[in-house]
Amino acid sequence: MMRTRPLKVALLGCGVVGSEVARIMTTHADDLAARIGAPLELAGVAVRRPSKVREGIDPALITTDATALVKRGDIDVVVEVIGGIEPARTLITTAFEHGASVVSANKALLAEDGATLFAAAEKHGKDLYYEAAVAGAIPLLRPLRESLAGDKVNRVLGIVNGTTNFILDRMDSSGAGYSEALDEATALGYAEADPTADVEGFDAAAKAAILAGIAFHTRVRLDDVHREGLTEVTSADIASARRMGCTVKLLAICERAADGKSVTARVHPAMIPLSHPLASVREAYNAVFVEAEAAGQLMFYGPGAGGAPTASAVLGDLVAVCRNRLGESTGPGESAYTRLPVSSMAEVVTRYHISLDVADKPGVLAQVATVFAEHDVSIDTVRQQGRLDSEGLGGEASLVVVTHRAPDAALSGTVEALRKLDTVRGVASIMRVEGE
Ligand code: NDP
Ligand code: HSE
């Protein structure tokens, strides 16, 4: 039975994502109404620049007063696609206070202060859905939260930032420069308003915090996530990865400790073998592996950024939230009952690729190997290549060491000791090796 009175939607933000949400709401109005059981009405659109021409949107709906819009009292669902912490946080909590449910794509806010939003939603008996906040169009959060609710997730590993994957892919496949690739990603609508959030790993870290929280039923904040961006990745690292049969990806990795008593969450560039499925994730695509006790390994893959793909996830949430409203129910709220502590990076165990500039003379290799042994870091492979020094004379070599699995703290101690050796001229790069 179709209800004739429409459900009113307030759209906060009409940029890359918001404009596509509005477009799909209009072009698919009949299908959406049939799926929900009531038509949707776009009741207002809050923006910063009211004079900007917005195709397909009735200018009478445009407002710069987002607060007044969410306070109207007749709004059923607020779709927040402004981004950032404020005013988004206040607008969302105000929306709950005034009777609306909320759909948001705002990973920065959810990772920074999800607790405030979840508490406000619960207090007012409203929904907060945010599928679009992680991995764009890929249905990932709802499968994790609902389909895997009966299983025990132990690990989530993946590529969750489209912009950085696009940049690394361009640098690797076409030899494009970093800035050129970033400009292209920005023009395609993948990058955040401030692309520093992408390239410094903040965006992926926010997504890692959200994923870890849902996967392990605990609270993980942005500050709990170890974060390294891709600005330090050089073309030499990419070439070195190639020589090892690997490629470089910016990975988000969330793990439950072997004893089950803590979790870790980290984002950093890593080498992965070309044979690994993540190695073939190109352009702005995302892919996420979930390892669960009973289900085994699951892989989620698809467009991770961009207006239309992200709007698809927003619209999916909008339909779910509207159905809940018609049924006078709410979906699952936050589940953080395990209260597991988040361990530091020092406790993470993984493999490392270390590139050293050393003096090319007898005994150097033995000296270097001794430092690794003293820190209990086992060497897997060593590759040495002699080269000319700055004066065109011999006497220097590049030494690439790949280790077996070791704690991050042990690796840091090893590198610190290596730097003190007279024969080590410099540590050219350190990169983790994952996916084996
Ligand atoms: P844009 O910068 O393209 O759009 C932001 C919109 O918000 C604009 O319409 C802007 O108005 C409006 N706005 C900004 N500040 C205010 C304010 N104070 N009051 C009212 N309106 C305001 O961002 P995106 O669409 O790219 O991203 C939106 C959200 O979606 C972010 O949280 C982002 O992280 C998330 N997201 C984005 C993805 C993507 O691929 N782009 C993918 C997944 C999530 P105006 O148009 O006048 O400037
Ligand atoms: N800037 C983000 C990215 C948008 O590049 O992945 C999608 O969350």
From TrEMBL:
Catalytic activity from the UniProt record: L-homoserine + NADP(+) = L-aspartate 4-semialdehyde + NADPH + H(+); L-homoserine + NAD(+) = L-aspartate 4-semialdehyde + NADH + H(+)
Q: Which family does it belong to?
A: Belongs to the homoserine dehydrogenase family.
Q: Which residues form the signal peptide?
A: none
Gene3D superfamilies the record matches = 3.30.70.260, Dihydrodipicolinate Reductase, domain 2, NAD(P)-binding Rossmann-like Domain
User: Is Plastid included in the keywords of this UniProt record?
Assistant: no
Function comment: Catalyzes the conversion of L-aspartate-beta-semialdehyde (L-Asa) to L-homoserine (L-Hse), the third step in the biosynthesis of threonine and methionine from aspartate.
UniProt cross-references to NCBIfam families, sorted A to Z: PRK06349.1 (NF004976)
Which PANTHER family does the entry link to?
HOMOSERINE DEHYDROGENASE (PTHR43331:SF1)
Which cofactors, if any, are listed as required?
A: a metal cation
Key words of the record: Amino-acid biosynthesis, Methionine biosynthesis, NADP, Oxidoreductase, Sodium, Threonine biosynthesis
**Enzyme nomenclature, EC number:** 1.1.1.3
Q: In which pathway does it act?
A: Amino-acid biosynthesis; L-methionine biosynthesis via de novo pathway; L-homoserine from L-aspartate: step 3/3; Amino-acid biosynthesis; L-threonine biosynthesis; L-threonine from L-aspartate: step 3/5
What's the protein here called? Homoserine dehydrogenase
> Which residues does the UniProt record annotate as the domain ACT?
353-432
Entries under Pfam families matching the protein = ACT (PF01842), Homoserine_dh (PF00742), NAD_binding_3 (PF03447)
Q: Which InterPro entries match?
A: ACT-like_dom_sf, ACT_dom, Asp/hSer_DH_NAD-bd, HDH, HDH_cat, HDH_CS, NAD(P)-bd_dom_sf
